Amino acid sequence: MIERVAHLLSLCQGGASVMPPTQLFNEGWLLRLALHWYSEQPPSSSPLAFEDKARWYSEGLLSSPFLARYRRDKLAEGYTHADGVIGHFDVTPGERSEIRVRKDATQLVVVEAKIGSPLSDRTRNAPGYDQAARNTACLVHLIAQAGHAPSTLSRAAFCVIGPKIQVEKGIFSPLVTKKSICEKVKIRVAAYEGSKDEWFENTFMPSLEYLSVDVVTWEDILEEIERTNVGPCFREFYDRCLELVPRL
Question: Are 116 and 38 in contact (CB under 8 A)?
C-alpha cells in the first residue's frame, strides 16, 4: 500500500493527477524534505541544523500552558500542531503524537513553514494571540515540563520560514520579535486574573531571554541544499509550490 500511495502522489506532477497537486506541492512537504536533508548533514550554524542525536517530526502536538482547566473553559486553547520540530524529544505512541522533551535534551526548535499565508493572528478564545506568541509559549512550556530552563539548552528557538519576497515585504517580522511575543503572551495571561502570573514572571519571561526567534527564507535554505546533488530536485519542487500556492 505504501508503494500505491507513492504512485498516487507522483501523479501530482502531471496531467494524470487524481487529486489537487497542492496535496503534494505545499509548505508541509517542502519542510519535511528540508528537515530530512538537514538531518543527514553535519552540525552547522544554520537555524535548521541538527545537533548530535537530534531528530525531527512533522505535525507533532505541543502542549500549552493554557489548556482547559475545566469543561467549557472559555479561555482555553487546545494543543498546537507544529509544522516541524527539531531536537531531543520523544513522541507519544499512537495517533496523538504529542512532543515530550527529553531529560537530556540540548536542542528544541519549533518551525512554522509558510508559502501563501501569513501567521495566524488569533486563536478561537484569544483574539490577538498570534501564531508566533502561541508557538513560543508552548515551546517554553514544553521545556519547563521536562525540568529544563532554555539557558541549559544550547539551542531553543521558534523559526518561521517563508519565501524571500514575503519576508522582504515584512509579512512575518512584526510578529516574530521578542517584544511582540512578550506583549501578546502578557495579554493572554492577564485574562486569567492572576492565576498565570507566576508562570509568566518566573518561567516565561526568563525563558524568553534565552530563546531565539528567527525568520528565514526558503531561498536561504535552497542556497545550502543546492551545494549538494539533490539541489536541482529541491529547487524544482520549491518552484512548483510557488506556482500552485497563491501568495500574498
Answer: no
> 7 phi and psi, to 5 degrees?
-65, -45
| Intra-chain end-to-end CA distance of the chain, in Å | 37
> How is residue 163 annotated by DSSP?
-
How much is the mean pLDDT over the chain?
A: 93
Helix/strand/coil (H, E, C) string of 7-72? HHHHHHHCCCCCCCHHHCCCHHHHHHHHHHHHHCCCCCCCCCCCCCCCEEECCEEECCCCCCCCCC
Q: Which residue has the cell 508566533?
A: 132
Tens-place pLDDT, residues 83-130: 999 999 999 987 789 999 999 999 999 999 999 899 998 888 888 999
| pTM score of the predicted model | 0.94
Count Cα atoms within 13 angstroms, Cβ side, for 99.
33
